[in-house]
Amino acid sequence: MKNAERIGRLGTETAFAVSAEAREWAAQGHKVYAFHIGDINIRTPDNIIEAAHKAMLDGKTGYVANAGIAELREALAADVNASHGTSFDASNVAIQPGGKPVIGKFILSLMNPGDEVLYPNPGYPIYESQIEFHGGKAVPYGFVPGKDNFGFDMASLEKAVTPKTRLLIVNDLQNPTGAEASEAELKAIAEFAVKHGLYVLCDEAYFDMRFSGKSKTLVSFPGMAERSIILYTFSKKYAMTGWRLGAALGPRSVIDVIAKLNLNDESCTSNFIQLAGIEALTGDQSGSRKIIGILKERRDRAAVILNSVPGVTCYRPDATFYLYPDVTALMKAKGFADDYEGFRKDVLHTTGVSFCTRLHFGRALPGETRRYVRLAYSGIDMALIEEGLGKFKEYAEK
Ligand code: PMP
User: 124 in ligand 1 pocket by Cβ < 6 Å?
Assistant: First the structure.
């Protein structure tokens, strides 16, 4: 059979290939330290599991409204209003099977073929995939190293915008860099979006996955609430990645379209999963606090060890569960210069430490000279973090 022409433009998450390679290496009897997986190896809190179980036993197993059940839409609107200062109600919420579906549905709802879309690179690879799959042009913007963390490269945003630009994708608290925009940067991004008449996807997947300080949102800036869609997910804060529960929040005109796409695609998100989502939002929060506490300890330890490795420097972001060390000097010392795959495989085969590199988050941008890798500490316990990064340090010292 011959695939449709658009399939040639559909991208993937090449990080899954790293998982497959790590699995194969482990199957050959080697010890693998899994820093490549952006998943969480901590169980969902009991009260959420019990709520789903009860809902299933109560027979909440049939179809429900395509935009989600009213109680969850209301609870989520209230929850987001409290942290964002917005005035959403249930009609501003379309429940989704995960946060990821919001990306494609945002693009389908608002982008015409030929439109240009600004997206972060390095960034979550699904943006580029979905833009190009639906016939748009994916135009990257980057990040710049600052004192304590990466920030948005406003100059690359300004350079990339053209009269054909229609959408802007912003992932503050960013995967993979951990970048966090300052108040001034958010204001500048908001003014940029308003000035150029862009609609914005605020991918807030890591909004609540933070260890200190308080997350800020782009939608609180003038002109933003009426031009933005928020990607919300239950995946991280409640360790619910496999449950598939998220939402789009924004102006009703777009939320209605997104709900219509739900009706055409998956009909609805599972009823008992949504009822568990209500428990997650409104029930005991101690489980979520515990998850964040565990991840904070892992972050602190991993950042300290990484910064002691010769040829490696690393920020310690306040949010996300990723570290994005600069390994330029180490790669050079080991004779890899810009050969990311050679370096990644050498580290895996010498030490068992498995990570993704910059190239798993988009093509390198012109003029990029620093080399980075991404370590996720959400899927690996403390003892293995210490053992694996210890071996990585020995490798670097040799
Ligand atoms: N956005 C970003 C930036 C992510 O890193 C992820 C998950 N890795 C998602 C969205 C989607 O997550 P989910 O579908 O589990 O909500």
Answer: yes
